[in-house]
């Protein structure tokens, strides 16, 4: 059996308030292993504003600002500017937010920070709905998924927003996707983002047992299946044009293997599954084509 080569240091304490099986909690633990002690987090309203614990306690183990819902990126930009004035440019300034504060409410601030080239790392732990306030639909919610605002008779009728594609259009220095099922890949990407200047963005898929209607013990399995089915590919983009796919299954597993484990998809018909499969297959081919084309660009 292959041994993991993860940093031994632990910055996040065990006394946090996350649900069992929370992908967002594990994502933070892994990210902090790479980020280290010289890190300042900005967290808007989201699950992590609760997970961290009540004032004056904090499970994160590093300085942390709680910011309004829409301001994770702009608050982090301000912190980065302050660190520069103080001559402390070796501090990692990180915006850490959920999909609601990223794909929806915080998108304007993110776009502004990306366009300006603010020297921050933005990490979204994506559990695909507004989980902290009752499992409401967000633009990160997958096609045909159940939420409390898209009940099973009227599930979400539009695809998940392509947040990586939006930020690639800003031509930022570094973008990546990651999951807690591939911890070495996640830490490698955080380290790469640390070594890069300017606006960087990492998108981490984070299973939510209460919101996805799954047992807590299968969160890692779900994260791995998301990659193996092509629903959530692991890849990087540099400067908006150089694509690299990090995990390439020889054959993608059928999406039903991922969907059937989640109560939020229990209502799906065979037609729904076939539609989702076709969307995933098309997106996978497009991603591989982008990677191939970016290789050709290097020779121009």
Briefly note the CATH topology name.
Rossmann fold
Strand residues, percent: 5-15%
CATH superfamily: Thiamin diphosphate (ThDP)-binding fold, Pyr/PP domains
Structural domain count: 1
Extract low-pLDDT stretches: none
- Series of H and E elements: HEHEHEHHEHEHEHHEEHH
CATH architecture descriptor name: 3-Layer(aba) Sandwich
How is the biggest beta sheet arranged?
8 strands, mixed
Strand numbers in spatial order across the main sheet: 2-1-3-4-6-5-7-8
Layout of secondary structure:
Blueprint: H1 23-35, E1 39-43, H2 48-51, E2 64-66, H3 72-85, E3 92-98, H4 100-104, H5 107-116, E4 121-126, H6 163-168, E5 174-179, H7 183-194, E6 200-205, H8 209-212, H9 219-228, E7 235-238, E8 242-245, H10 256-259, H11 270-297
Parallel strand pairs: 1-2, 1-3, 3-4, 4-6, 5-6
Antiparallel strand pairs: 5-7, 7-8
Task: Please give a quick description of this structure.
The chain has 300 residues and is α/β, with parallel strands linked by helices.
Q: What do you see in this structure?
A:
- With 300 residues, the protein is an alpha/beta fold.
- The protein has one domain: Rossmann fold.
- It has 11 helices and 8 strands.
- The protein has helices spanning 23-35, 48-51, 72-85, 100-104, 107-116, 163-168, 183-194, 209-212, 219-228, 256-259, 270-297; strands at residues 39-43, 64-66, 92-98, 121-126, 174-179, 200-205, 235-238, 242-245.
- An 8-stranded mixed beta sheet has the order 2-1-3-4-6-5-7-8, with helices on both faces.
- Helix 2 links the parallel strand 1 (39-43) and strand 2.
- Helix 3 (72-85) runs parallel beside helix 5.
- The longest helix has 28 residues, at 270-297.
- The chain is globular, with a radius of gyration of 18 Å.
């Amino acid at each position: 059996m292959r041994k993991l080569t993860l940093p031994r240091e632990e910055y996040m304490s065990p006394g946090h308030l996350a649900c069992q099986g929370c992908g967002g909690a594990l994502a933070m633990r892994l990210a902090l292993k790479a980020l280290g002690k010289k890190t300042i987090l900005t967290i808007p309203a989201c699950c992590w504003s609760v997970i961290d614990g009540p004032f004056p306690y904090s499970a994160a183990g590093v300085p942390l600002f709680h910011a309004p819902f829409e301001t994770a990126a702009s608050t982090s930009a301000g912190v980065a500017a302050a660190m520069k004035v103080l001559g402390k440019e070796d501090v990692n300034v990180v915006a850490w937010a959920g999909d609601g504060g990223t794909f929806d409410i915080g998108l304007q601030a993110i776009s502004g920070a990306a366009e300006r080239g603010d020297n921050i790392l933005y990490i979204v732990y994506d559990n695909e709905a507004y989980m902290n306030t009752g499992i409401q639909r967000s633009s990160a919610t997958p096609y045909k998924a159940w939420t409390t605002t898209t009940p099973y008779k009227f599930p979400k009728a539009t695809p998940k927003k392509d947040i990586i594609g939006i930020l690639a259009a800003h031509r930022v220095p570094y973008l990546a996707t990651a999951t807690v099922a591939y911890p070495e890949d996640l830490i490698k990407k955080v380290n790469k983002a640390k070594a890069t200047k300017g606006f960087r963005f990492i998108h981490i898929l984070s299973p939510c047992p209460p919101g996805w209607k799954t047992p807590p013990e299968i969160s890692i399995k779900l994260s791995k299946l998301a990659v193996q089915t092509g629903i959530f590919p692991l890849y990087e983009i540099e400067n908006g044009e150089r694509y690299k796919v990090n995990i390439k299954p020889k054959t993608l597993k059928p999406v039903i293997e991922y969907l059937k484990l989640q109560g939020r998809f229990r209502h799906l018909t065979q037609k729904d599954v076939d539609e989702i499969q076709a969307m995933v297959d098309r997106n996978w081919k497009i991603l591989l084509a982008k990677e191939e084309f970016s290789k050709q660009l290097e020779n121009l």
